[in-house]
């Protein structure tokens, strides 16, 4: 099976490519919805895995454009949030775990069950990414740039669990659950609490 993987998180894409290729699949990776549409229309791919939140063109818009153009192959959404738009054949909840992905995609084709481990060097690269992102979050919090702050936390929610950092993923989930409803004056204390909890997590 030839997979098209549309995802703007570089390390998450590298992990998925490695896992899928070791299981015997061909994977083409693109970083945004516009590139996904262009690749999909070549009809070289049997199935598309489409992240919902991407730059240039989001996954929902890309899916809708492909359906309008008559694309009839399976398109699978990937999201840490609920997806209600019609047009996707399946919705995979982030963080993605290869065993669960295999089970869900089995409805399209029998996918071999292969137990895979996250390579140490790739996990180390992701941990470094998390550490750098936490430093960036501290700066964003000090400047009260909450839109950018929330975007990075959203990325944590969708990818940290894939690299074995379930504690970071769960903290990000808790943060997002209440973030949009709390008053403006509570955002800095809430962001500070999130950062303190993340720093307390054992990453290595």
TrEMBL record:
Tell me yes or no: is Amino-acid biosynthesis among this UniProt entry's keywords: no
The keyword Phosphoprotein is assigned to this record: yes
Q: Where is the Response regulatory domain?
A: 2-109
Residues bearing PTM Phosphohistidine: 154
Per the database record, which ranges form the HPt domain?
115-204
In terms of superkingdom, the source organism counts as Bacteria
Entry's PROSITE patterns? HPT, RESPONSE_REGULATORY
Residues annotated as carrying 4-aspartylphosphate in the record are 51
The record ties this protein, via InterPro entries, to: CheY-like_superfamily, HPT_dom_sf, Sig_transdc_His_kin_Hpt_dom, Sig_transdc_resp-reg_receiver, ST_Response_Regulator
Key words of the record: Phosphoprotein, Two-component regulatory system
Q: What is this protein called?
A: CheY-like chemotaxis protein
Origin organism is: Rheinheimera soli
Top-level taxonomy? Bacteria, Pseudomonadati, Pseudomonadota, Gammaproteobacteria, Chromatiales
